[in-house]
Amino acid sequence: MERWRRYVPALLAGLLILALAGNVAAGVAADPRHDFTEEGGQPAVGGTGYAIVELVDPPAASYTGGIGKLKATKPAPGKKLDANSRDVQAYVQYLRDRHEQIKAAMRSAAPKARVVREFFLTGNALVVELNGHNPGQLAGIRGVKRVSESWLYRPAMNVSAGLTGAGALWTKLGDGQMDQGRARAGEGIKVGVIDSGIDRTHPFFRCKDYDGDGDVDEQDIPSKVYASGVAGDPSQVLVSDHGTHVAGTIAGCVTTLQQGPVRDTLSGIAPAARLYDYNVFPGFGAGWVAYGGSAFSHDIAAALEDAVRDGMDVVNMSLGGGVQGPHDYLAEAVNAAVDAGVVVVVAAGNSGPGDMTVESPGSAARAITVGATTNAHYIGIPVSAGGRDFGAATGDFSPFGRVTSPYALARDGSARPEEACYPLVNGAEVRGKIALVKRGSCTFTTKVRNAEAAGATGVLIINNVAGDPVAPGSDGTAPAPTIPAAMVSMADGQFLIDLLAADPQATVTIDGTVETEIRTGSGDILAGFSSRGPTPYTYLIKPDVTAPGVNIYSSVFDGQWAMFQGTSMATPHVAGAAALLLQLHPGWSPADVKSALVNTAARVVKDPVKAMYDPGVLARGGGRIDLTRHATPLTLDPVSVSFGYFNGNAPVRGRQDITLHNVSSSTQTCTVTVVRDAADPAVTVSAEQVTLAAGATATLTVSMEGGRSDRLPSGDYDGELVLDCGGKVMRAPWWLRVNREAKP
């Protein structure tokens, strides 16, 4: 029996627990679309008590030689780090010896400090429980490069799989038969899920019973748990909804649902991929919540190091937090994991739509960082008014029955009166009616509670961005509202407002007894919550790409199903896509996979407010992934060109090299064109045509010259490089920012 869970708020990637940069937090708070129920983080009181002590030598994943007779351990492109190889073991022993020297010095400098974890593969560092010592006491030890605090992070498909173009690869894998290819999609690829655990007993994972014993157990989906300094036994409550939902999107088995609101055959993007469970949020949302459902960055880094050691091909990280300076440890660990030959896919975060809201470790240069776009369906109920039929998305508030009722537009007396974030001032109009309220500024629970206090019999929330409505989720605070609530689209909400203005006696009919999947075709609109670039401190173009992350239907804990939304939900679409590409092209490097996804992405993403407009490179990166275009002859590294930030009267110029790799089996001749506006700084390339033999690489230099920043208007300048190889087109965004008012 399939069970459908009615609640849907899963805006979890990038739930910062400590501190966002001040300007980022202010930008988020000021935006009326940032109204989600649980994601804005608060600064913690005091420190976490843990420090990450980085040493001067590179980790094994990044070591290129030069220390005595120790051979390089960084793998060649297309190869993975073998943690058990003789060369890696020798270099790790060298690092261990250095660690022992640091520990000896620590006993003098900080006698109460205790080493609780050590990294050698994706980082060269010790994790230290400070026990009252100041991190500065460790920074002066010879051989220490940097000391930083360990921060706290939180966890940030039927129709959505179609939007990604996965069917094209399924068909290719099945030699023209999509169903056959779908069943074996991802075969032989290991995908690590660093999240809140996977419910192995869920029917969506029944095909993972590799040993045929009738149970999907530890031998089928191996799991590890990470929970530093937690009292009690986190293994007693291992898994929860978030990780189970993410894993289902990546590699859920081909499953036909015959009950509940969605009755269809669905699967993850790579149903045959091998899943590995790295649980850094044990018990998240399931009654046992360590540090408010958070994980230390060093626990996440430990999971990533284990994933490299265990030979993962792809790692999914639907999580995030604030960027901790230009040398963020977790971001650097992600970069090292990519050096080790692992494709690492990370959520951009849910702190949009403000500028520079991309979170760590999505800020890592080598990660594939994913923003969220709308899907093309939702779970809802029929609504009609004024001769128009439409739908309303249902969440976890009380359900509507079958009702025809007058309605009124709520007003609370504030600057945004229709958002109902404060007690209503038009109770006489609302009493006994369904209240219309607009999304924005406060939680859905606050809106419904205020409407109920004014005597409303139900609430229809009007979405404040284009596209489909989303399920309104409760924030769990008491007293919980008792009246029903659902959400209508911005267009349908405006229709109700206009109808009411023309006829104050207008009524609306809602049939809450018929909950079903409503397919709309309203995909590819950027989610308002999706974090935007550039990255803080480093000014990189992020996110790299987008994928469906709104109204995503997948598995949740205890055999149930639910629709969630967030960049957490977009990320596993890309991780699954990466698994398919590696299955088709086993010799590809992480850079090849990233380019094949980013530089062939579809430029179809629309702005959430002005739906006819492109939201820009800092919002959508290369675009929405499109696996129908996967057969790229060339890959690019890096996938985009960020010239950075220029202020005052600084010279506006820069250059960046891009490595072109011919991944096809034949010689390729490609033209290179720069797309820019006439008023933009001059952007040129070192060659307007390149010819590469099969397997060969070449360097393309991209140069920018714009004079002095005090002579250019302040603002962002962007365009793209277009490489056309006989009709196969790759596009690489370029970008820079000028602030002529700021001092250098």
From TrEMBL:
Keywords: Cell wall, Hydrolase, Protease, Secreted, Serine protease, Signal
Active-site residues (renumbered): 195, 242, 568
Any GO BP: proteolysis
One Pfam family per UniProt: Peptidase_S8
Presence of the UniProt keyword Cell cycle in the record: no
PANTHER family: CEREVISIN-RELATED (PTHR43806:SF11), PEPTIDASE S8 (PTHR43806)
Domain named Peptidase S8/S53: residues: 186-603
Signal peptide: 1-26
Similarity remark: Belongs to the peptidase S8 family.
Coiled-coil features, chain-numbered ranges: none
PROSITE patterns from the UniProt entry: SUBTILASE, SUBTILASE_ASP, SUBTILASE_HIS, SUBTILASE_SER
Organism: Thermaerobacter subterraneus DSM 13965
UniProt GO molecular function: serine-type endopeptidase activity
Highest taxon of the lineage: Bacteria
UniProt xrefs under InterPro entries: PA_dom_sf, PA_domain, Peptidase_S8/S53_dom, Peptidase_S8/S53_dom_sf, Peptidase_S8_Asp-AS, Peptidase_S8_His-AS, Peptidase_S8_Ser-AS, Peptidase_S8_subtilisin-like
Protein name: Subtilisin-like serine protease
Phosphoprotein among keywords: no
Ranges annotated as spanning the membrane: none
PA domain: residues covered: 417-494
